[in-house]
Design a protein that fits this description.
This protein is mainly alpha-helical and 176 residues long. It is built from 6 helices and 5 strands. Helix content is 51%, strand content 7%. It has a 3-stranded antiparallel sheet. A hairpin with a 4-residue loop joins strand 1 and strand 2. The chain is elongated and about 80 Å long.
């Protein structure tokens, strides 16, 4: 029995050192070397936020992100969910009554995680004229900032181009 307890304790100590110390240390070192910014949370000091976590912007002078549906248990096909989307679309139309284009889906469909920091290029372009009008600048100036913070497809074919809402809004405040 003593031999089994000794073997079990040695296995426990060995696995604790390998899985609890060595492996996390190696992964941390690799992450810090290869992905320093992401490993540290992509912190943006100016607003004490992260480029990887969606922020809530409600003023018309800002690019609006995706609504937060993290706490919602609604079936996307339900009447309640449809009503929420219609209310969001009406609110966006009220915010920008001069906008005639249809509201892009990602501005009315909530982010299930609640932390999505990106919107589609179409959703950003939809808002450019409103932002320009609110800030008293040309739409081209706003569009240049949006383009600057648009992430292209990975390797040229994977995913869709997306716009980082927080990065655009911080630059809007700095330069316009």
């Amino acid at each position: 029995m003593k031999v089994l307890i000794k073997q079990a304790l040695l296995a426990f100590l060995f696995l604790t050192l390998v899985c609890g110390v060595a492996y996390p240390a190696v992964v941390t070192l690799i992450a810090q070397a290869a992905f320093h910014d992401q490993a540290n949370g992509s912190i943006i000091e100016e607003n004490k936020g992260s480029a990887l976590i969606g922020q809530t912007f409600t003023e018309p002078k800002y690019l609006l992100g995706r609504p937060n549906d993290a706490a919602s248990n609604l079936n996307p096909a339900s009447k309640e969910a449809k009503q929420e989307r219609e209310e969001r679309a009406k609110a966006l139309k009220k915010l920008d009554p001069n906008q005639d284009a249809p509201v892009p889906a990602d501005l009315v469909m909530g982010s299930a995680s609640g932390v999505d920091p990106h919107i589609s290029v179409a959703a950003a372009d939809y808002q450019a004229k409103r932002i320009a009008s609110e800030r008293g600048v040309s739409a081209e100036q706003v569009e240049k900032i949006i383009q600057k913070h648009t992430t292209k497809r990975l390797l040229g074919f994977m995913g869709e181009p997306v716009v980082n809402v927080l990065a655009v809004n911080l630059e809007l405040d700095k330069s316009l």
